[in-house]
Amino acid sequence: MPVTDVQHDLDNLTLTITADFAAPVERIWQIYADPRQLEKIWGPPMVPATFVDHALTPGGRMNYFMTGPEGEKYCGYWQITEVDEPRSFSFADEDFTPNPAMPVSTSVYMFTEHDGGTRAVYVSTYESAEALQQVLDMGVVEGASSAINQIDDLIAA
């Protein structure tokens, strides 16, 4: 399994997930740069994603929805703030139309060479400890880990 560490820090309002992959940084970057590949790993296996817009550029936007087993849809978007291809990108994650009841995070995804492969560090920062606790209670660690763990199958194909 690629996920090697998960840390949440209510004092610093962060959730950090670390994963290691047996593929070069450029290959892991391609997954996030190509919406069709990203669809294969964004969201847990039972809640696949569809990206309807994909602009991995500073100021770009990536709109997506995830479809649950009963056909329910969960919409979200990333507003891309920074890109350092193929090393990192940052985004703010909200619904297509922001829902004030749902937490908002600012995330940084970083990819570095590690032991002949790639170490990915995913850091999400929330507006409050309550917002971070809300996503933890919603199962973000389990959902994100199962999504990230799908990368191994994709890079093996």
Automatic annotation (TrEMBL):
Domain Activator of Hsp90 ATPase homologue 1/2-like C-terminal span(s) in chain numbering: 22-155
CDD domains to which the protein is assigned, alphabetical: SRPBCC_CalC_Aha1-like (cd07814)
Pfam families noted in UniProt: AHSA1
UniProt similarity note: Belongs to the AHA1 family.
Protein name in UniProt: SRPBCC domain-containing protein
